[in-house]
Amino acid sequence: MTVAYWCVLIALFLPYLSTATAKAVSGGFSPRYNHDPRALLDNLSGLGRRANNAQLNSFEITPAFSAAVIIAHLAGGAEQTLLDKLAMAFVASRILYFIFYVADWATLRSLVWFVNIGLIISLFVVSA
Predict the structure, then answer these.
(1) Which domain of life is it from (predicted)?
(2) Count: domains in the chain
């Protein structure tokens, strides 16, 4: 299995870092919230809300990244090392995205989001 494929696996679980953060800062690990955890997450504010928003964005972008990695592998037009580096850069940038989101650094967060999209596009372009 390639490094890029392992990055897909990591990306699939990154949203849960945000979920755990949102729940941790809001007391959401209490058994009383286990019956309807989404209701808790929908009503958060501040850091908890930003962490939940980072989770939602992660769930939105991960399918595109996963598809890009798979398509890049199938197309076979790029060196595997390059695909691996692009995939690792995506995972690293998603971690930065999470940090910037919870820190409320909106401009940096938005810039990193554009980097995320650029990396996904790059996976397609280098494999064309």
Answers:
(1) Bacteria
(2) 1
